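Sequence only, no structure available. Ideas?
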Amino acid sequence: MEIIDRILLLLAGREQKELTDYLGLKSAAFSEWKSGKSKSYRKYLIEIAKFFNVSLDYLVYGKETASSNEIEFMNDNETTMMNLFRMLSEKEQDRIIGRLENMVEESHKFKNK
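Reply:
I predicted one. Tokens follow.
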């Protein structure tokens, strides 16, 4: 996955104008990024990472840097899930956590039969 693909993934559910306004750019610049005509987004990577509240490692390489407390890196699905999760409101996050807890509980019940 290319950097622009991750930017588009992170932008899901938001207006590209929010990002271009944040960066002080015209929307035409973003259109050029999407079409592949320009890769000028590279000079805005720090600001883009701040806008989405993600690490540069994720934006550039698609991987989060593991903290010293982590035993292993997140896989691509986990990283994508975490970035999507961060876009939700706190209420939506709580609802998702509840659903996941129920799914895990049901899974354990099924395995134990």
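The chain has seven helices and no strands.
Hope that gets you unstuck.
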